[in-house]
Design brief:
The protein is α+β, with helices and mostly antiparallel strands. It contains 6 helices and 14 strands. A hairpin with a 2-residue loop joins β11 and β12.
Amino acid sequence: MKVVEVDITQNVMRFFRYGLLGFFMLAVLVAGGIYIYQYHPSYLTADAEVAGTAVEIKAQSDGKIVELLVEDGSEVEAGTPIARLAPNVTEDEIAQLEQTAALAERNLKELQQGQKVTIPATEASAAGTNPAAQQDLANAAARMQRMNELFEMGAISAVKRDEAAADYDAAQAAANSSPPAASYQTITQKASPEMLKNAELQLKQARAALESAQQAMKATEITAPVSGTVSYGDLAVGSSVRAGDSIASIRDVNDVWVAARIPAREKEIVHLGQLIDYEMDGHHVQGTIQEVVDAQPSDDVDSDEAQMVTVKISVPNDADFSIVSGMEANVRFPIRK
């Protein structure tokens, strides 16, 4: 039997040469995978939008909107007129209020100086033997005169005026046992503190009503209190508004942020001051996390996983494009580093 000798030296050398090369390549691939895993994090993406502080714009008087001066969503500067209002007050109403205020002022002055009351001379002489009856008659005469003035002003009803007249007649009958004489005398009757107080209150109210109406006549333009984006909401031409009503809102351009919502279970991946990348209007932007707002408990949510937290991210002040409220953004949160 013939034995064939085989030289395996070359085979061994070939094995070591290509085997080591393959082992080296495998090691490189493993090391690369580990590097990518450790230093290239995966991301949680979230849709977001630009939000900001909304400032309410209120009507200064009652009236009707007759014109909207800027379009909804427009950027305006502070002080820019955004709507025009036709007040409910008319010139005739202003004139009537001026007359009422003047009459109230004159009435107060007369009360402060004292009311002059004319009574029959026989009543005074007859009442000389009865001072209480004379005083009652003078008081009744002063009250009747005061009620007549208030009735002319529209401050009291005819019933009150007639009651005062009836009281005067009763006082006159009590003070006189005979028909009045033809001669009269005039006396000055000081107003009571209560009458003075009521007159001062009526003057104050009349002046306040006049001032309010005059201001309403001037409040024909509604202006933006701050610079920002105007939102009219349901306001339209023809809408009736009252003084103090919130008719629109404006978002301050100097106080905006990106608001992103992520599941509550992912809250541990974010922290204050963290640098975050996001895309907005085709631009790559970076900002820092300013606030993380926890989800509010809700009876409609069965589990914590369904809850969402809001992450507020800053926007750059030197952006080379316009950033306005409502603009959409796509945010990437790194899951691990």
